[in-house]
């Protein structure tokens, strides 16, 4: 009976806390609307979780940036200007603005999701300062897509087979990775990849294992190399002036719940990476209605060693050369300490 009384009191206290929140309406520009990160996490979070947990006091409208006619790279500028109040954007979109945006997702840096999260959390304070001071944007957290892997409409057996291949990449460091193996990097938007693979404009393309499945890359690809190249982390942020106008109780409520959502996305990234492998290749473990028929290429010890060596010998030195001394110092003091790496400027 005491337990029931305590539970009832807890519910009443929660409802009372929600009632203390002032009425607030928010506008969110989310990630790509056709991907699971948006459909399974962002959209229900803002449309359902936040209104329910706030007792209807906080409501939000959300659309994926692609639904707004945006390409992605302009999101930080629009958040900085306050045109986009809250936004979600992939860090690699801003690589050309400053190499610091590549620091947590260099190819080969994180062979698994646990390492990717450690690296991200280690470097997050540096991003918070960088965006806060430079763009007047408050960083609310960093999530991830499933592992970025290689889809090919060609017979490949490992990384060495990238030699001579035209490979779609989504960022500069991915391009450097492909070129390190003798391939040719081709930059193109996500939505253009299916016809490009189909018409042999490119031989291969890199994206999240489940993102590729969602976009039906299995219809135009034959081989999937199950080796995480990188992760394509996303930042969740808000214009600082917009944030400062919110009631402190609303700020605390939002930050606590955003932290939970981001934790859920990280947990899902591991299972979704495997789900992408399973469903693109038609494995029995795939529970989706439509299954691909791609060949799963299991990475060898040699592939993993090659990726690690390429990171140390080519990717890191090239990146350090274009990043500032402070950027490299920040890397060594955070990610470097976490992984036992030292980068020289």
Write the topology of this structure:
Elements: H1 2-19, E1 24-30, H2 36-53, E2 58-64, H3 75-81, E3 86-90, H4 113-134, E4 137-143, E5 148-152, E6 166-169, H5 172-180, E7 184-187, H6 193-198, E8 204-208, H7 209-214, E9 223-230, E10 234-239, H8 240-245, H9 248-281, E11 295-297, H10 301-322, H11 325-339
Parallel strand pairs: 1-2, 1-3, 6-7, 6-8, 9-11
Antiparallel strand pairs: 3-10, 4-10, 5-8, 5-9
Helix pairs in contact: 2-9, 4-11, 5-10
What does this molecule look like?
With 345 residues, the chain is of the alpha/beta class. It is built from eleven helices and eleven strands. α5 links the parallel β6 and β7. The longest helix is centred in the last third of the chain and has 34 residues.
Question: Which labels suit this protein?
Answer:
single chain; 345 residues; alpha/beta; 6-stranded mixed β-sheet; 5-stranded mixed β-sheet; 11 helices; globular; disordered N terminus
């Amino acid at each position: 009976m005491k337990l029931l009384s305590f539970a009832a009191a807890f519910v009443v206290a929660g409802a009372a806390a929600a009632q203390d929140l002032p009425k607030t309406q928010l506008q969110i520009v989310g990630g790509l609307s056709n991907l699971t990160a948006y459909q399974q996490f962002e959209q229900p979070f803002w449309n359902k979780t936040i209104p329910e947990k706030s007792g209807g006091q906080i409501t939000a409208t959300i659309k994926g940036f692609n639904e707004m006619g945006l390409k992605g790279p302009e999101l930080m500028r629009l958040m900085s200007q306050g045109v986009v109040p809250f936004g979600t954007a992939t860090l690699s979109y801003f690589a050309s603005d400053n190499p610091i945006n590549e620091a947590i997702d260099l190819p080969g840096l994180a062979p698994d999701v646990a390492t990717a999260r450690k690296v991200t959390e280690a470097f997050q304070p540096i991003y918070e300062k960088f965006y806060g001071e430079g763009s007047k944007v408050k960083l609310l957290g960093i999530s991830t897509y499933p592992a970025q892997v290689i889809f090919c409409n060609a017979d490949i057996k490992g990384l060495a087979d990238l030699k001579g291949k035209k490979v779609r990449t989504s960022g500069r460091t991915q391009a450097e990775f492909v070129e390190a193996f003798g391939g040719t990097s081709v930059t193109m938007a996500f939505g253009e990849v299916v016809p490009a693979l189909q018409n042999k404009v490119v031989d291969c393309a890199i994206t999240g294992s489940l993102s590729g499945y969602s976009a039906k890359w299995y219809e135009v690809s034959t081989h999937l190399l199950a080796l995480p190249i990188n992760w394509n982390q996303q930042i969740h942020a808000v214009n600082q002036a917009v944030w400062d106008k919110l009631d402190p109780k609303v700020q605390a409520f939002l930050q606590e719940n955003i932290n939970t959502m981001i934790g859920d996305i990280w947990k899902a990234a591991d299972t979704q990476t495997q789900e992408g492998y399973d469903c693109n290749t038609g494995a029995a473990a795939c529970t989706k209605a439509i299954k691909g028929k791609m060949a799963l290429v299991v990475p060898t010890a040699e592939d993993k060693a090659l990726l690690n060596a390429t990171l140390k010998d080519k990717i890191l030195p090239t990146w350090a050369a274009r990043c500032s001394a402070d950027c490299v110092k920040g890397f060594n003091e955070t990610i470097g300490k976490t992984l036992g790496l030292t980068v020289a400027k």
